[in-house]
Amino acid sequence: MSEENSVETIALKVDASGLKCPMPVIRAKKGISTVEIGQNMEIIATDPGAMADFKAWARSTGNELLLAEQNGDVFRFVIRRLK
């Protein structure tokens, strides 16, 4: 895997901590439009519905969910822009 495609290579970090649905997804939507196709965006969220929301959002927008993890009350997602 090239460095460019690695989960660790983040072009944009979006902190949606403390925001409730649908705001984390709205922030992600705005953020993904600012990165180049093929680049990765990281989102941090604390909304318990974020796990389901971001899986559905990535699928519906045609972007790739590279990472979805939970550490306590914090959720971290890495999404690659494909479109």
Automatic annotation (TrEMBL):
Q: Which Pfam families match?
A: TusA
Matching InterPro entries:
TusA-like, TusA-like_sf
Q: Name the family the entry cites.
A: Belongs to the sulfur carrier protein TusA family.
Looking up Gene3D superfamilies in the UniProt record yields: TusA-like domain
What is the official name of this protein in its record? Sulfurtransferase TusA family protein
Provide the alphabetized UniProt keywords: Transferase
Example GO molecular function term? Answer: transferase activity
Q: Which organism is it from?
A: Sulfobacillus benefaciens
